[in-house]
Amino acid sequence: MTQSQMMHSSITRRWKRLCALTVLTVTSCAGPGGAATEAPTLEIKNFRRLAPGVVGGGQVDVSEFQIMADGGYTLVVNLRQEGEAFPEDEGKLAEQAGMGYLHLPMGGDTLVAENADQLAAALDEFGSGFVLVHCASGNRVGALWGLHTAIQQNADPEQGVALAQAAGMRSDSLAACVRAALTPEPAPPFGFRAWGSMREVLRNGETQGRVDLASLNGSHLIGVGALAGLSGELTIDKGIAHVAAVSGDGVTFPTPASDAQATLLALAEVSTWKEITLPAIANLEELEDAVIAAASQAGIDATSVPTMPFRVEGTFENLCLHVLNGSCPIADPDGPEPWRLTDATAEGVLVGFFAADAAGKLTHHGQRSHVHAIAITSEGQQAGGHVDSTGIAAGAKLFVPSSK
């Protein structure tokens, strides 16, 4: 076959494909008065009707987007990842044709519930007409649609897998993702609330009051945070609020005013603690590892819950801490300097929260814990504030919530 014949044959096949799509759009999909009632069939791999008005399958030919739009399609959802071979201008072409476009890249083992939430939001915004959800072969489409449907129906994990398989999912790894996304995390044996985030308060300077301290009642409360305006460090232990505030070149520990507010606060209510005797701890990283191990003994996976409160009672060595003085030195290097205590030996309590993945929210970047101290130094001075580093002498008591 000559090159001219090959080109003519390719054009002919394409013309037949476009004509077939056009016929489906204006005839077989038309209801009374010519209104389309069923999404036109598309020539894609593993084409499947997922729900009324929603279809799924493999990669779509982007040159047919205008015909799809003319046929009533209003949204294209692409699940393929950047490294895969799909037209880089797919989104632009979909929008030029008048359709909405959502690029929701998913791998074969990265499906999470948030993906289903994003799909649901897109359907709400652009789903007035017909919708195409595509990946390379329809496998990921089935997994995502099954998860989306399971969430809508409040289905259990196995029902969700069945729904995904019915929608075209074939891989075991995606089935595991569906199960995981539908398996509720066990409720931790403590209540947790938070106001503000490290990013909002320290980086963005949003230091307004967010919670009245007078509203926080209960002898089982522990917490760490900062007062409104970054006017002091706040530590709550056994329901009692302790404030450390800079005054001149020193620090004071005033009783909180009746109208005092916190701009940043992580708060937990723990009724039952498990006590562990610690060996010598060299630094906060070793303390974090000890918290993970102690939590495991208490029946809690500290790396899977959003945060894990803990307390330590004992002797602290080389204790370094600071008290903010109205600004964050990272966000505002020219602002007032914090008060600092360095390399002290002290007796007292550490109150902290371990969080494996809360940088910018509860912890500074690169750290897994947010820890405050309430202590008396070896010189008899009261000390308290945000702990930057510390060692812990052997024999100290670590307390983590008990699940039993």
Structure report:
The chain is an alpha+beta fold. Helix 4 crosses helix 5 (139-153) and helix 5 packs parallel to helix 7. 27% of the residues lie in helices and 31% in strands. The protein is elongated, with a radius of gyration of 29 Å. The strands form 3 sheets. Strands 6, 7, 8, 9, 10, 11 and 12 form a 7-stranded antiparallel beta sheet that branches. Strands 13, 14, 15, 16, 17 and 18 form a 6-stranded antiparallel beta sheet that branches. It folds into 2 domains: 3-182, Protein-Tyrosine Phosphatase, Chain A, CATH 3.90.190; 191-401, 60s Ribosomal Protein L30, Chain: A, CATH 3.30.1330.80. The protein has helices at 3-28, 65-70, 90-96, 113-126, 139-153, 157-166, 172-182, 198-203, 284-297; strands spanning 48-51, 54-57, 73-78, 100-103, 130-134, 191-195, 211-212, 221-227, 233-237, 240-247, 250-252, 261-269, 273-277, 308-323, 339-354, 369-377, 382-392, 397-401.
